[in-house]
Amino acid sequence: MKCLAVASEIYPLVKTGGLADVVGALPAALAGEDVVVRTLVPGYPAIIARLGEAREVARYDALLGVPATVLAAHVAGHDLLVLDSPALFAREGGIYGDAAGKDWPDNWRRFAALGKVAADLAAAGVEGWRSDIVHAHDWQGAMAMAYMRFGPAAHLPRVLTIHNLAFQGRFGAEIFGWLGLPPESWAMDGIEYYGGVGFLKAGLISADAITTVSPTYAEEIRRPDDGMGLDGLLDGRADRLHGILNGIDTDLWNPEADPMLPAPFAARRLGGRMASRRAVEQAFGLKRDRAPLFIVISRLTWQKGMDLLVEEMDGMVAMGAKLALLGSGDAELEAAFLEAADKHRGRVGAHIGYDEPLSHMMQAGGDAILIPSRFEPCGLTQLYGLRYGCVPVVARVGGLADTVIDANEAAVAAGVATGLHFAPDDAGALRRAMARAVALHGDRPGWITMQRNGMKADFSWGRSAARYAALFADLVKAAG
């Protein structure tokens, strides 16, 4: 089976979050299920610089008003189709916004163009290669579903994966004339959304199947509290909604062979974690001791519950714990964590930004990773934590609830706990969860059992890839 994937980022070429990790890992996992994936991505400078030998497979004199070419190349183990349009993608700053974090004003054109090209390639094929199915990711890829539905590729099955419903790609009605879609697409069951254009909404209404990145999130987004205005649409399409848990690349995230760590370790040989712990303490200016070391690797946003953690910093330090934080996001939250690091020198350290090797070392050296998200479609950092013996302390939402077994009395007695749950959106519940973690950390045999349980859990892509492949096969069969 041949699958054309459409996404705005892909690891290791360009990454802002977990989307890139999934898009980067899924093709190799699907190959084991006899699904061949080619991935269409934007031609950001970071990707163009890595192309090497590339073949031009399509050319546009005016793609939504700008010239563009499509290049085919094999890069970093990926079979890529790259939309090369300097007018859209050759710019300094982030892939979605400028250096100050403000969205690019032409994001509608940039990602509508990506969707239009995906639909064109699905209809015409590429060098004799024709996809059997198209798989788009998030709002940036979602317009591929609409362009296919209202174009010559309407016969091909379409799948859209929601990685985060909060980001929807909503734009004014004035862009409709530029999109090149037929008048009938401007409708409630088309791309119109509250008087404007909704990219994610267009994809959701046009896809033959919708997947989310965890089963619990698939249920949550059908409710008004978590549906972000799309709960009615999603509940009405519940028969096409599938929750498929993300996996992780267990070769890339492998504590026994991770080149980013100062020393390897395994579930039965945890002593090697100490070298990473000492390295984390040094990197963050933390006191060298055996106090419980919490880590945070996150976007610093309201969604991630980082304001709740700010409220509880003094209490955490009073418990005798330490914190190493790596992340960026809201300026006020960045400032609050830097202030906490200054106030609690040696007990709290904060690095604003992102550093892939440091994130690996933190997972390997931390005792517990804090994830107080208000909602979490899947989450990957808790999976990395489990893999590396860094016990997750998580809000009981979405994929966090699906992947972490709470250390309640029964689970501890049965020897199956892998982490701690607490109620979301509640600073007091976070404080009590941290206190539980500190107490459990004092029971060394019990804590080591939790670490080993997590490290032995299987969060590879095997089962999830099999579910994607089965879904794809059913859709292709139904399409005839």
Please specify the SSE layout and strand pairing:
Blueprint: E1 2-6, H1 18-31, E2 36-42, H2 45-48, E3 55-63, E4 66-75, E5 78-84, H3 86-89, H4 107-124, E6 133-137, H5 138-149, E7 158-162, E8 170-171, H6 176-179, E9 192-193, E10 196-198, H7 199-206, E11 209-212, H8 215-220, H9 231-236, E12 241-243, H10 273-284, E13 293-300, H11 306-311, H12 313-318, E14 322-329, H13 331-343, E15 348-352, H14 356-365, E16 368-371, H15 381-387, E17 391-395, H16 398-403, H17 409-414, E18 420-422, H18 427-441, H19 444-456, H20 462-479
Parallel strand pairs: 1-2, 1-6, 2-5, 6-7, 7-11, 11-12, 13-14, 13-16, 14-15, 16-17, 17-18
Antiparallel strand pairs: 3-4, 4-5, 8-10, 9-10
CATH class of the largest domain reads: Alpha Beta
Distance between the termini: 14 Å
Strand content: 15-25%
**CATH third-level topology of the largest domain:** Rossmann fold
* CATH architectural arrangement of the largest domain: 3-Layer(aba) Sandwich
The radius of gyration computed from the alpha-carbon positions, rounded to a whole number of angstroms, is 23 Å
Largest sheet, spatial ordering of strands:
3-4-5-2-1-6-7-11-12
CATH superfamily of the largest domain: Glycogen Phosphorylase B
Structure description:
- With 480 residues, the chain is an alpha/beta fold.
- It folds into two domains: 2-247 and 461-479, Rossmann fold (3-Layer(aba) Sandwich); 270-456, Rossmann fold (3-Layer(aba) Sandwich).
- It contains 20 helices and 18 strands.
- The strands form three sheets. A nine-stranded mixed β-sheet has the order 3-4-5-2-1-6-7-11-12, with helices on both faces.
- Helix 1 (18-31) links the parallel strand 1 (2-6) and strand 2 (36-42).
- It is globular.
